[in-house]
């Protein structure tokens, strides 16, 4: 198990909670016209009833703000929607995601057919050059095993363009994701012969992911992936049911989530100890420096020494030569320390864990037991 996978697993781990379904109060409202994305497993162009769980519109300011606070990554919730944006880099990553904070009580979804999202890609016209996924968690852990399904935002945007024309600025589309399209994944890979999604025990978390990785048993990447900045505007996330009644909308009680402080307090002791180490290796500034060094070496054909001198000259314009040299020496010291610590951890932790993992999988195969496929093989 690589070191970054080990840290990620530790960061996502937490305790389970008992299932207590929240009270549902369906109230029929006015019908509304929506654009649907056709599923390969189910005809979602039937009449549907929508039950918003998270509502970012201006219809209720309290609901809007509570919905925004329920997510760990919502960049803006001031106007009539929420903005989810980011910069996706392919070196050492290739995905961006957002998810809810842990629910105080698991969400009851037994009377619904799937999840829907009302959204539009505001940043560009290249939705099809990315992989969009909906994520659901059916237990209280925060590990790497979750259920995912494709969220066909590209098809949704095409449908809106055909119906409303390309000149329309806000191209809102309602994308339906049936429960029977969700599959168990471990990291970016499908779990072979994994159990089907069962929502009878409640849903503990909802999330969205934009990725370069397709849903496959290996880490297959989409061709012509578009990295860099993206921005998705979201009005509603909720459940839907298909029926013969006219299309409409009902209301549901907004689930309570733990605050970020409460979620942090409930982290296991091992996780609290590992977080400072994780911040050393996965800081945003370090990722930017690596990307900048790669560009200077590959595109400008500079050696590492010349790239460092280029950085000194660039900083000199803002802070002077002496401070620029001091700052550069500080950066090099931090990067050197990170490299040394990384080497030590690989020797005393990663390599022994990898060996133990191989040994355990070999013993399980010899005993005829089921063996999980490692994330990287």
Question: What features would you describe in this structure?
Answer:
The chain has helices at 3-12, 61-69, 153-164, 260-265, 269-281, 284-298, 304-319, 321-366; strands spanning 47-55, 82-88, 95-99, 114-121, 131-137, 145-150, 173-178, 183-186, 189-190, 205-211, 228-243, 248-249. The strands form two sheets. Strands 1, 2, 4, 7, 11 and 12 form a six-stranded mixed beta sheet that branches. The termini are close together. The longest helix is centred in the last third of the chain and has 46 residues, at 321-366. It is built from eight helices and twelve strands. It is 34% helix and 21% strand. The chain is α+β, with helices and mostly antiparallel strands. Helix 1 crosses helix 5 (269-281) and helix 7 (304-319) crosses helix 8.
Describe this structure in a few short sentences.
This protein is 34% helix and 21% strand. With 377 residues, it is an alpha+beta fold. Mean pLDDT is 77; it is low at 1-45 and 74-79.
Taking pLDDT < 50 over at least 5 consecutive residues as the criterion, the unreliable ranges are 1-45, 74-79
Distinct helical segment count = 8
Q: Biggest sheet, open or closed, and with what strands and sense? A: 6 strands, mixed
Let me know the average pLDDT.
77
Structural class: alpha+beta
Q: How many runs of DSSP E, i.e. beta strands? A: 12
Shape: globular
| Helical content band | 25-40%
Order of helices and strands: HEHEEEEEHEEEEEEHHHHH
The N- and C-terminal alpha carbons lie at a distance of 9 Å
Radius of gyration: 23 Å
- Measured by DSSP, the beta-strand proportion falls in 15-25%
């Amino acid at each position: 198990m690589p070191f970054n996978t080990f840290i990620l697993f530790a960061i996502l781990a937490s305790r389970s909670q008992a299932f207590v379904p929240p009270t549902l109060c369906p109230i029929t409202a006015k019908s509304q016209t929506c654009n649907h994305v056709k599923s390969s497993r189910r005809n979602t162009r039937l009449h549907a009833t929508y039950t918003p769980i998270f509502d970012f519109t201006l219809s209720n300011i309290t609901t809007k703000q509570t919905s925004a606070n329920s997510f760990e990554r919502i960049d803006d919730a001031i106007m009539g929607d929420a903005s989810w944006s980011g910069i996706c880099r392919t070196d050492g990553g290739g995905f961006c995601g957002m998810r809810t904070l842990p629910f105080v009580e698991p969400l009851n979804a037994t009377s619904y057919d799937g999840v829907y999202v009302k959204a539009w890609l505001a940043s560009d016209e290249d939705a099809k050059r990315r992989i969009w996924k909906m994520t659901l968690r059916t237990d209280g852990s925060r590990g790497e095993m979750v259920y995912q399904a494709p969220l066909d935002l590209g098809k949704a945007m095409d449908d809106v363009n055909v119906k409303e024309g390309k000149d329309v600025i806000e191209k809102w589309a309602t994308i339906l994701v049936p429960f029977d399209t969700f599959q168990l994944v471990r990291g970016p890979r499908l779990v072979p012969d994994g159990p089907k999604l069962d929502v009878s025990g409640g849903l503990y978390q909802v999330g969205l992911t934009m990725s370069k990785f397709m849903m496959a048993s290996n880490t297959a990447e989409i061709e012509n992936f578009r990295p860099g900045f993206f921005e998705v505007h979201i009005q509603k996330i909720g459940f839907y049911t298909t029926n013969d009644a006219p299309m409409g909308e009902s209301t549901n009680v907004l689930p309570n989530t733990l605050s970020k402080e409460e979620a942090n307090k409930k982290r296991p002791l091992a996780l609290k100890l590992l977080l400072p180490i994780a911040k050393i290796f996965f800081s945003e500034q370090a990722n930017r420096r690596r990307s900048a060094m790669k560009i200077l070496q590959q595109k400008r054909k500079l050696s590492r020494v010349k790239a460092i001198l280029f950085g000194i000259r660039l900083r000199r314009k803002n802070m002077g030569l002496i401070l620029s040299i001091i700052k550069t020496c500080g950066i090099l010291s931090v990067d050197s320390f990170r490299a040394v610590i990384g080497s030590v951890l690989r020797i005393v932790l990663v390599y022994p864990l990898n060996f133990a993992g191989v040994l355990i999988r070999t013993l399980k195969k010899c005993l005829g037991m089921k063996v999980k496929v490692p994330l990287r093989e």
